[in-house]
Design goal:
This protein has two domains: 203 residues, Rossmann fold (3-Layer(aba) Sandwich); 126 residues, 3-Layer(aba) Sandwich (Rossmann fold). It is built from 13 helices and 16 strands. The protein has a seven-stranded mixed β-sheet, sandwiched between helices. It is globular.
């Protein structure tokens, strides 16, 4: 081969290597998102995904992470635990995601957890609140939402101001609802408050008159309700129609008070709601500037304002995952899992940092978020302190 030919060959080889390097550099880092986009709690799942997309766009506009853009691989778990498992397996096996966020409901998350152990892939839990999730011995779980127990403890100092004498419960018949009833009842009993009726409802139930009629026969002054916003609207309207005179308090952070005002009207007046991000008062956030920017971007995209109480979860979740990937220095499951233990950042509802929960050697990560209480007063949302 001539010197010229050799040089041409070397140049061609160099170009090929450069193109390969650029192709590798351009590859996206995938993050799996397992949320209910259809089915009974679809509204909440879509709000979480909207928040996640805002975070992804924000991150990519700043160059992504580790020199690559991030790509959200979104799967619909159809508001069903079996589908949540199938979605998780698809994300891990077919899409090769090194980390996931999900799966909204405690029931869906608990169903997915064995797959995390099987494939050794970490999952950031953005919504689920059942205490079982972080005490079952799954080292691939990292939760940024509060447990029901944390909610109850945060609410405890406000009990006196609400003058609760006796409380009834109406909760969705799953791990989330029953877990909330257990821990709130325990907290109330510790303060000398009596517990009356504890009723459950299927997540898809629309006629709740039987449960509400039973509650009406109780002499309690307060009703705690735990369910998604769609069903909560029905509870408020049907309770109002029955003439049920109760102070209603909802738990779980998935209530969207603006949606309740719009859809339940006067029936929502006087109700109290535990939330983890109050978008009407972004100045209450630990990072007020960022909270205001997030609310502004949400509005700019034409998303329903009511969804902000859910959307922030997806936003904080993706930012937490990307911070862990950056700390890990590579997008590999075990590296990300280890990095999550040392990841700290300020989310829209407080500092995100993981403490150990569960049996020694198999601990899950649990962050401790802020809990707010708002009241619907004459069709407006007010902050209850």
């Amino acid at each position: 081969m001539t010197r010229t030919g050799t040089r041409a060959t070397l140049i061609a080889a160099g170009i090929a290597l450069g193109m390969a390097a650029n192709a590798t550099h351009a590859q996206t880092i995938k993050i799996g998102v397992n949320e209910p986009l259809t089915g009974a709690v679809a509204a909440s799942g879509n709000f979480v995904v909207n928040g996640a997309k805002i975070a992804a766009d924000e991150i990519n506009a700043k160059g992504g992470v580790l020199g690559s853009k991030i790509e959200l691989v979104i799967e619909d778990n159809k508001s069903n635990p079996t589908e949540a498992v199938a979605a998780a397996e698809k994300l891990i096996v077919r899409d090769k995601v090194p980390v996931m966020m999900g799966a909204w409901s405690s029931t869906y998350t608990l169903a997915v957890m064995p797959k995390l152990m099987e494939y050794k892939v970490p999952m950031l839990v953005e919504t689920s609140s059942s205490d079982k999730i972080t005490v079952s011995g799954n080292p691939y779980i990292f939760r940024i939402s509060p447990t029901s127990g944390m909610e109850a403890n945060a609410f405890a100092p406000r009990v006196g101001a609400l003058k609760i004498r006796k409380a009834d419960f109406l909760v969705v018949n799953n791990d989330w609802g029953k877990g909330a009833a257990d821990v709130f009842a325990k907290m109330l009993k510790s303060k000398g408050i009596a517990i009356g009726v504890v009723a459950t409802m299927d997540a898809s139930a629309q006629d709740l008159n039987a449960q509400l009629s039973k509650i009406r026969s109780s002499d309690a002054d307060t009703l705690f309700v735990t369910t998604a916003v769609e069903q909560l609207t029905l509870v408020l309207k049907q309770a109002h129609a029955l003439g049920l005179k109760r102070q209603i308090i909802t738990t779980g952070g998935s209530q969207s008070p603006d949606q309740l005002i719009e859809q339940a009207g006067a029936a929502a007046n006087g109700s109290y709601h535990l939330l983890f991000f109050p978008p009407w008062f972004p100045e209450a956030s630990p990072d007020a500037a960022r909270a205001k920017a997030f609310v502004a971007e949400w509005r700019k995209r034409g998303f329903t304002f009511a969804g902000l109480t859910e959307g922030f979860r997806g936003y904080d979740g993706i930012h937490t995952i990307v911070a862990a990937i950056a700390k890990a220095g590579k997008a590999e499951p075990e590296a990300i899992r280890k990095a999550l233990w040392n990841t700290t950042l300020t989310g829209l509802n407080g500092k995100i940092a993981f403490t150990k929960a569960g049996p020694a050697g198999k601990e899950s990560g649990q962050s401790i978020p802020a809990v707010y209480v708002v009241k619907i007063d004459n069709g407006k949302v007010t902050l209850f302190r």
